[in-house]
Amino acid sequence: MKRNKFITSILTFAALPLTPFANGIKKYVQYRANNGFKIQAGEGRIHGHIKLKGLNENIMDVKISGKDTDGDLAIFEQTSLSQGRGTPLHIHPKQDEIFYVLQGSYFFKAGDDTFHLSAGDSIFLPRAVPHAWTQVSEKGKMTVIFQPAGKLEEFFLTMQALDHDPSHAELEKIFADHEMQLVGPPLKLE
Fold first, then answer.
1. What does DSSP say about strands 181-186 and 122-125: parallel, antiparallel, or unpaired?
2. How would you class 94 by CB atoms within 10 Å of its CB: exposed for 0-12, middle for 13-18, buried for 19 or more?
3. Which of 10, 30, 28, 9 shows the shortest CA–CA distance to 20?
4. What is the CA radius of gyration of the chain?
5. What is the pTM of this model?
6. How far apart are CA 167 and CA 183, in angstroms?
7. pLDDT score for 141
8. Which domains are delineated in the chain?
9. Which of 174, 104, 167 lies closest to 133 in space, CA to CA?
């Protein structure tokens, strides 16, 4: 009898961590079940075209907002119009990032490694790894995926709202306010 109680107790205790997971799955299915949507080519969902300022003058189109996925994922399409410019070396402590090059060419740094990417190439940048990229070609286009979504959408809106080129101290604050850490200068072309 004691053995049966013990086994029942262990099984009950072992199942407890699965209860919130099951509730999360139920919430996930209910949240997304009938909310499919289409985003037209060349358009951004929610904000239209987000025209960046400060680091580069590229255009970000929100394809899938973090608001659409309860913060689980965000997908952007970036139209690159700033040859020789990109991002400073930075870290996303809480997000993985994936770039898929649709058009043009780019130079990336991830940790100690560098990569040249052209149309059809992808790169995975794990969270907490310092990285940066620079646009090599005159024009380019990339799909950019963040998981989880974090505050990148808000970061892009903040950069769009700038009325001046931010100082290094201002950039550090903007990055920190959006869950990123600025750790170095922009990437130079090799």
1. unpaired
2. middle
3. 28
4. 21
5. 0.78
6. 15
7. 97
8. 2-32 (no CATH), 49-186 (2.60.120.10)
9. 104
pLDDT, tens digit (0-9, with 9 covering 90-100), for 90-141: 999 999 999 999 999 999 999 999 999 999 999 999 999 999 999 999 999 9
In single-letter form, the type of residue at position 105 comes to S
pLDDT at 10 over 60: no
Which amino acid does the sequence have at 187?
L
